[in-house]
Amino acid sequence: MSDVGPTRPAPVVTEDSAVFWDAARAGRLVAQRCRSCGRLHHPPRPMCPACHSIELEAHELSGNGTVYSYALLHYPQNPAFTYPVVAALVDLDEGVRMLSNLVGVEPERVAIGMEVEVTFEPTKDDGVVPLFRPRGQRS
Amino acid sequence: MTTLVGDATIVGIGQTEYSRAAGRSETQLAAEAIVAALADAGLTSDDVDGLVSYTIDPVEETELVRALGTPEIGWSSRVPYGGGGSQGVLLHAAAAVLSGAAEVVVAYRAIKARSGSRFGAAQTVARPTSSHSGTTAMQWCAPYGVLTPASWMSLNAVRYMHASGATSVDFGRAVVQMRAYAATNPNAHFYERPITLDDHQASRWVAEPAIRLFDCCLETDGAAALVVTRAASAPGASPPVVIAAASASGLFEEEIASNHYRPDLSFMDGSAVLARRLFDETGISRDELDVALIYDAFSPMLLLQLEALGFCERGEARHFIADGNLSPTGSLPCNTNGGLIGEGYIHGLNLTLEAVRQLRGTATNQIRDARTALVTASRTGVILRRG
Fold it and tell me: Tens digits of per-residue pLDDT, B328-375?
């Protein structure tokens, strides 16, 4: 029931965010990495805030993380989604945090600290978004 | 010293009615509130040479000036972060008049959050740049159905509950107090409509397990305005209110209505920076405050701010509230107009007007002999004093 299906809107892709969404469309979960100092950044940005390098690249992540926070969204409702929407902030093992949805889990079983792994779902207009599901579960 | 202090003074306040359907444009609402504030100050639009608002306000300065007939504007600015920037307008206004860049600055906000573009609507259209509305980060939320301010902030609130042990009942106690103040404020949407904790617990979930319907501020139409000059140079009859300290902070990775990418979401560290600037750097003590107006867009954020502003220890806000500290007889009478949850949501600027009324002695729920007030909106804030 948490699978929101193909009505999900496609992400807005900008010059600064394309590094993330282009990888997602290829089935890869990435964070932006600074080639100069090696730091990872999410959401991506046009300059490394640590060293001001503009040499930035996509760095593939393991896709494993833990739930930092979550909420079951009931209202208001948009027809593009199935409710409750399970919103979550996931801390990836590599140290970046991402906002996403949890799938493959009953909403009432979602908890902070839950170990999750990435999965991908197509959206309207040929987009793809990374989602997360309990780790070790068959899709 | 990084906090602005001085003798910049609020000499006039004005507002329209707060309603669910204003039936006229935001620009007209702004102009009406400004004219009322100028009349309160004993000034006219010819005297105005500065304008300040904050982001998401749809009023174009050029259109506003065209309505007011102001002959010459020498200062105009906008504070970022939407409602979180709402109290920053007094920093900008004070900076303008104390530096000599302007003599009479009007701070304003007009909104049609109910009949116009509803703040709580679940719209999937993500505007990546959105002409300075400050909502760029929302492009990362929309594909996931995280479409409203309540949904953005619920993620912070659930982490806070995890860290502090606070529950929906604790948030409800704050709401019951806001609604009690609103019940005796004829200007409030929830005038004569107090609620019990059971009523709060029976209201439906918006974002479980943190935010119920009654935890949310109201979508409101209306406008509010203040007039700021140097010292009490205006001829108005109302007692002047001095901007004793003003600050607008902004931290790395802060967003307009959440800070999802900052390390610890159970603490509102932007408010902690604000408290350092307003109290520690000015020598003004929290004990001097007679009343506080704290941006209660959603009740959990009230608890987070009480802790970050230093009124109680981390995790202790629920006890601070349960002990009655926010009540008229408590140590920190808070949101005496009913707050954004009980009076209405003019994007935070109605809280500033309530602070001025308290210091003038004209508030509906008047705190006796109020001399010093705090107004904050997470990262921006002021300490006001009766002149």
Answer: 999 999 999 999 999 999 999 999 999 999 999 999 999 999 999 999
| Non-local CB neighbours of B104 within 8 Å, separated by 6+ positions | B43, B47, B48, B49, B50, B97, B227, B228, B229, B234
Chain A hits for B209, CB-CB cut-off 8 Å, are 71-72
**B295 among known catalytic residues:** yes
Of the residues A17, A75, A78, A131, the best mutation for testing chain B's interface (the one with the most B CB atoms within 10 Å of its CB) is: A75
How high is the mean pLDDT of chain A?
Answer: 93
Binary contact (B158, A101; C-beta < 8 A): no
- Residues B118-163 have pLDDT tens digits of 777 777 664 444 445 555 677 888 899 999 999 999 999 999 999 9
Q: What is the dihedral of CA B298, B375, B220, B327, to 10 degrees?
A: 60
Tokens at residue B212, please? 């119920």
Nearest 5°: CA angle at B160, between A48 and A93?
45
What are the E-state strand segments in chain B? 8-15, 50-54, 75-79, 104-112, 205-208, 211-212, 221-230, 241-248, 291-294, 372-377, 380-386
Mean pLDDT of B306-331: 98
Q: Which member of A70, A72, A99 has the closest CB to residue B141? A: A99
pLDDT digits (tens, 9 = 90+) for B220-268: 999 999 999 998 666 777 889 999 999 998 787 777 767 899 999 999 9
User: Residue A92 is inside which H or E element, if any?
Assistant: strand A85-92
CATH class of the B8-117+217-386 domain in this structure: alpha beta
Question: Helices H, strands E: what count in chain A?
Answer: 1, 8
Q: Do B124 and A78 touch (CB under 8 A)?
A: yes
**Are the beta carbons of B54 and B108 closer than 8 angstroms?**
no
The region, left, alpha or beta by phi > 0 then psi within -120 to 50, assigned to residue B283 is left
Q: What is the pLDDT of residue A5?
A: 54
For an interface test with B, the pick among A40, A67, A73 (most B C-beta atoms closer than 10 Å) comes out as A73
How far away is chain B from the Cα of A11, in angstroms, using its nearest Cα?
Answer: 5
Q: Which residue has the tokens 């929830």?
A: B190
Query: How many angstroms separate the CA of residue A139 from the nearest CA in chain B?
Result: 19
Give this complex's ipTM. Answer: 0.94
